[in-house]
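Hi support team,

I've been running sequence recovery on a batch of backbones for a student project. Most finish fine, but this one hangs at about 90% for roughly twenty minutes before it completes. I'm not sure whether the input is malformed or the queue is just slow. I've pasted the structure tokens below so you can try to reproduce it. Let me know if you need the job ID as well.

Thanks,
M.K.
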């Protein structure tokens, strides 16, 4: 059975449990990632004779396993890592940053032995074999490393999450620098503050050719992470240097800075005291009296100027910086005037995206080509496109795609994007680049209309805020509201509140939209079906995500659909990430083969850290079976639906009977169904029958006889239902197991494409139409309720209630007046 990404990620994250408590996530990441790295290169070298890492005898992961439980485990691992680094100069100061004998972090004596042994045990799992990827284009190991980096950054807290740039932001930057147009391996990509290297790798993934990779990172441990990350992604020749980029730039040619074709960067925000060994008149020409000198208390422009100086004359770059760089004054104002010609674009991002800070940031897109002839800056304000993800915000698939599409089109979009001339920037705004000055937000503010609160009616301003619905359903507005009222600017609801949802759903235009939506969905399925049915062993799955995503966006972005095309794209991409990509990698590896298996209990560990094999689980029903490519429920529904319905009905009846039984036991436990009544013995079918006979013979209390008879019937019904369930389970299990054995590849393919992929996507996409109906209904109801009770009506109601209270008080002898 192939490794699934989700299962791999869960297994790797377990390794962190062995270290939590003793140290911060920014520290224990070093131990986990080094262990992962050694496991990977050990497995890889056994299957690839040309593997670039030289592993001396005694330096394999198996040698780690041999140290488990030994007093010398920490020192032993350190020696292996040192020997491995000596044999591979590129690993010097990379895999030796974690000290496995450090008692201050790992515990003393037995605690250290146990912790390190348990950590080795996690990677010892038989399911973790990285000997080969599932497909030629699969980066399973690299993606796993990326997953761990994200989680480490999340847990590291405010001050220590700077080694990782969120993948979604990295993808935006990678696409907007134009690296997808690279033509030669001689072209270069550089990140002056590369952290763990994730931003570099995302940019490299967009390049059609293998460009040369360069980077520099100040932190020693994070530099090691970047080097490992490159090797795990197969980039063995990446030139990643360690040092302070501002004060000690490492990538130079003679006495000048080396220049690059493409640059991406996410420097630390607002670095204080950045100017150390560097001079105010910079040796490398990055800043000085002619350009301006960044304030010593804020290094944002120091990094930006370094990037501009490091770009070739036709180079492009993208840099993440806080919004303050767009409008701060004094020294930064002077620099902004001098470099504005290099700024081709600005993308404003949502707040709370980054792990080191919650403040909003922006991407500055730099381009030296035709800088002297450029007429202005293309601005995108994407601050509203995100989703909450735990304590942070995250760009959705649709947000990434929308930003990139708008950037590539370079066309104005109301309230979202606009090309702004340098003349407007200079003359009207004095080089202030703050985005709200140029891109006004959509009118979504809820205004409390005083006149409507006093005299009633629904303000047309509020109704017009729902324009996205009326433009797609022109007749719907007239069916919901009467707008030609005596008072200009106000309307009345045409139907009752309870009829709003029904009015929307039966509206002619809404029905047309529903039909149009289904037609586009059917057209999309017709277009991509041949591609999906043609999938076979040996495919390269990664390209299919883009092809299928582009296709669904193209179909749903037409005809002013109520369902936003980018929402449809988001639905597809989410399903791709959670299910379809794993399915395509399975198909790439074994073809249309449905392998049925029984998930086994997790391996357990002894106190000494030894892995204990759990007792093998045997299937008792179809619920104990699993198949990654073709879920069991789809086979059951396709071939054995009648038997499945019988089983489901029996299970439903059993639940009802057991509920009734529990209610009876609760109601009569102190009277008729207490064990004392049965001479202190357990209540059984035999004892109940005996009690029933005794009550009949003695003609005792009729209620008790009825209770006992009813209770006996319920127990009988429960037993009968259990027999039906047992028989159905046995029959269904045998049928399903047999069916999987005889399924042809064509049958598997038909069910996976039609029932699994299209079935799930159709359901999720149709939910979009349902949500639109619910959102519009909620908006109209909210508007109506906002002005439902006018102030005079509230005054009258209050007066009526006061009069009633006063009358009651008088009746009781109190004179309230």
């Amino acid at each position: 059975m192939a490794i699934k990404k989700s299962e791999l990620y869960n297994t790797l994250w377990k390794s962190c449990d062995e270290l939590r408590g003793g140290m911060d996530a920014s520290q224990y990441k070093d131990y986990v990632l080094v262990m992962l790295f050694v496991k990977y290169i050990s497995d890889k070298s056994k299957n690839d004779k040309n593997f670039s890492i030289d592993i001396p005898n005694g330096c394999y992961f198996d040698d780690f396993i041999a140290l488990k439980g030994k007093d010398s485990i920490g020192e032993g691992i350190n020696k292996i890592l040192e020997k491995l680094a000596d044999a591979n100069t590129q690993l010097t100061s990379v895999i030796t940053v974690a000290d496995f004998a450090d008692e201050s972090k790992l515990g003393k004596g037995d605690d250290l032995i146990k912790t390190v042994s348990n950590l080795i045990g996690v990677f010892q799992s038989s399911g973790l074999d990285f000997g080969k990827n599932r497909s030629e284009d699969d980066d399973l190991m690299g993606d796993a490393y990326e997953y761990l980096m994200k989680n480490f950054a999340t847990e590291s807290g405010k001050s220590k999450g700077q080694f990782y740039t969120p993948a979604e932001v990295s993808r935006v930057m990678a696409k907007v620098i134009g690296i997808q147009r690279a033509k030669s391996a001689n072209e270069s990509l550089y990140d002056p503050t590369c952290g763990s290297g994730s931003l570099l790798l995302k940019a490299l993934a967009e390049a059609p050719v293998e460009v040369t990779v360069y980077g520099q990172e100040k932190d020693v441990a994070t530099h090691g992470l970047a080097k490992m990350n490159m090797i795990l992604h197969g980039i063995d020749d990446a030139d990643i240097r360690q040092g302070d980029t501002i004060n000690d730039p490492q990538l130079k040619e003679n006495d000048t800075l080396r220049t690059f074709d493409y640059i991406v960067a996410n420097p630390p925000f607002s670095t204080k005291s950045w100017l150390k060994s560097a001079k105010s008149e910079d040796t490398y020409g990055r800043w000085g009296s002619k350009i301006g000198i960044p304030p010593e208390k804020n290094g944002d422009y120091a990094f930006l100027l370094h990037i501009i100086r490091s770009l070739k004359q036709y180079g492009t770059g993208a840099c993440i910086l806080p919004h303050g760089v767009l409008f701060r004054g004094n020294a930064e104002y002077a620099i902004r005037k001098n470099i504005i010609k290099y700024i081709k674009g600005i993308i404003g991002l949502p707040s709370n995206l980054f792990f080191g800070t919650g403040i909003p940031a922006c991407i500055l897109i730099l381009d030296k080509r035709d800088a002297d002839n450029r007429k202005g800056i293309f601005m995108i304000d994407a601050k509203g496109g995100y989703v909450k993800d735990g304590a942070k915000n995250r760009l959705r698939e649709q947000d990434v795609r929308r930003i990139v599409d708008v950037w590539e089109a370079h066309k104005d979009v109301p309230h979202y994007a606009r090309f702004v001339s340098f003349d407007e920037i200079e003359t009207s705004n004095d080089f202030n680049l703050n985005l709200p000055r140029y891109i006004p937000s959509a009118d979504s503010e809820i205004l409390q209309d005083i006149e409507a609160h006093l005299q009633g009616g629904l303000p047309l301003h509020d109704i017009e805020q729902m324009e996205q619905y009326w433009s797609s359903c022109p007749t719907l507005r007239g069916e919901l509201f009467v707008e030609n009222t005596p008072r200009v600017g106000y309307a009345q609801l045409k139907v009752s509140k309870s009829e709003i949802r029904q009015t929307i759903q039966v509206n002619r235009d809404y029905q047309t939209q529903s039909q149009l939506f289904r037609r586009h969905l059917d057209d999309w399925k017709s277009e991509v079906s041949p591609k999906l049915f043609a999938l076979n062993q040996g495919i390269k799955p990664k390209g299919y995500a883009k092809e299928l995503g582009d296709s669904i966006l193209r179909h749903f972005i037409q005809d002013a659909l109520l369902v936003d095309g980018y929402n449809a794209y988001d639905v597809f991409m989410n399903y791709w990430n959670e299910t379809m990509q794993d399915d395509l990698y399975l198909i790439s590896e074994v073809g249309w083969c449905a392998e049925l298996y029984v998930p086994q209990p997790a391996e357990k560990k002894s106190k000494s850290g030894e892995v204990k094999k759990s007792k093998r689980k045997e299937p008792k029903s179809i619920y104990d079976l699993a198949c990654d490519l073709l879920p069991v429920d789809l086979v059951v529904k396709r071939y054995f639906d009648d038997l499945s319905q019988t089983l489901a009905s029996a299970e439903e009846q059993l639940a009802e009977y057991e509920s009734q039984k529990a209610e009876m036991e609760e109601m009569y436990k102190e009277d008729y169904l207490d064990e004392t009544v049965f001479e202190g013995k357990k209540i059984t079918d035999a004892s109940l029958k005996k009690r029933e006979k005794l009550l009949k013979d003695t003609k005792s209390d009729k209620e008790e006889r009825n209770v006992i008879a009813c209770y006996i019937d319920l127990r009988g019904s429960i037993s009968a239902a259990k027999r039906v369930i047992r028989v159905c389970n046995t029959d269904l299990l045998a049928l399903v197991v047999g069916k999987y054995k005889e399924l042809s590849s064509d049958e598997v393919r038909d069910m996976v494409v039609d029932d699994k992929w299209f079935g799930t996507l159709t359901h999720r996409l149709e939910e979009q139409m349902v949500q639109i109906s619910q959102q519009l209904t909620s908006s109209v109801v909210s508007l109506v309720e906002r002005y439902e009770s006018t102030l005079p009506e509230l005054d009258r109601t209050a007066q009526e209630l006061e009069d009633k209270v006063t009358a009651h008080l008088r009746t009781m002898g109190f004179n309230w007046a």
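--
Follow-up from support: It reproduced on our side and the slowdown came from queue contention, not your input. Residues 641-742 form one domain. No action needed from you.
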